[in-house]
Write a structure and sequence with these properties.
The protein is an all-alpha fold. The chain is built from 17 helices and no strands. The longest helix is centred in the first third of the chain and has 29 residues.
Length: 306
């Protein structure tokens, strides 16, 4: 895949973090105000992104079969990473940083960063963004259940309620009937949803820039756990994904979608969960920030494989 195109795309997306950084540094926004931006992203923009992704695809049996397989592979990929790291670190789970490393290595920013990457790198395959929506669903199902359990050590999070009652899953009750029936959103509604969906990447990066402004560079880059999480998410995870799909009898672009999404840095949902449960908030923030910074280098390099 074209190195220059990939590098420019990634750097352009990362540039959205600059306004957020400046807003905090010049005290135009207080640190406690970041949570309000995060709620807008989680409860408004992310569901619109899922709806937008499904609306871009045209239903066919072949596409649905590929999406079903993609969903299973996404969940399997994350479960393998979580399970392997649990076995490696479980005797040291008294250290919350290692619990954060486990989930940070498995859950990627496949929506906010993945969708614009797919649209830029695979313009001839508009269905590609629908696979990102499937990956998002798999990730959230895993994050709100198995990921939450590993992060907290409490098995109560493995429940049907946690599987269903989260924004990316609830929006499926709207998106899937439209997708299966081939019904497209009315023009006015489609424009509304598209605008909110396209806000996700700038808003996500603005929030990331805000968080970056709240920590000192020395503290951020002196955490070995954040380097470990970044290495696992940005290098090990993509190569496992590549081995998982390289020999599958599916179209080449589907394999490319899986690899591109696997290359994405740690998802902000890891930080959100850490803050909700009061476990490892600072290591989670460092893991998200560090992996995102290093992804500017790793994504263009790894996509040379394609």
């Amino acid at each position: 895949m074209n190195f220059s195109l990939t590098a420019v795309t990634v750097l352009t997306l990362m540039a959205f973090a600059v306004p957020g950084y400046l807003l905090i540094r010049f005290k135009a926004v207080k640190e406690e105000g970041i949570s309000y931006f995060a709620k807008l992203l989680l409860f408004v923009c992310q569901p619109c992104l899922s709806l937008y992704s499904f609306n871009k695809a045209d239903y066919s049996r072949e596409l649905f079969a590929d999406m079903s397989l993609f969903f299973a592979l996404s969940a399997l990929l994350e479960a393998v990473m979580l399970g392997a790291l649990f076995l490696i670190f479980r005797k040291r789970y008294a250290n919350p940083s290692l619990r954060v490393v486990t989930v940070a290595a498995a859950f990627g920013n496949v929506g906010f960063l993945g969708v614009p990457l797919l649209e830029a790198l695979l313009p001839d395959h508009p269905d590609a963004v629908a696979f990102s929506a499937v990956f998002i669903v798999a990730m959230n199902l895993m994050a709100w259940t198995l990921g939450s359990t590993l992060l907290t050590g409490d098995k109560k999070y493995i429940s049907l309620k946690k599987l269903v009652l989260n924004p990316p899953v609830l929006i499926l009750f709207v998106a899937l009937p439209l997708f299966f029936t081939g019904t497209k959103l009315p023009s006015a509604v489609d424009n509304f949803v598209t605008l909110l969906a396209r806000m996700t990447t700038p808003l996500c990066m603005i929030i990331l820039g805000m968080r970056l402004a709240t920590v000192s560079p020395k503290e951020l880059f002196s955490s070995y756990e954040s380097y470990l999480a970044a290495a696992l998410k940005l290098v090990a995870f993509p190569f496992i994904a590549y081995l998982l799909v390289v020999f599958l009898p599916v179209e080449e672009y589907v394999k490319q979608v899986m690899f591109i999404l696997a290359c994405c840095p740690t998802a902000s949902v890891v930080l959100n969960l850490a803050e909700i449960y009061g476990v490892g908030q600072k290591p989670a923030a460092f893991s998200v920030l560090t992996s995102t910074i290093f992804s500017m280098i790793t994504i263009p390099l790894l996509l040379l494989i394609l």
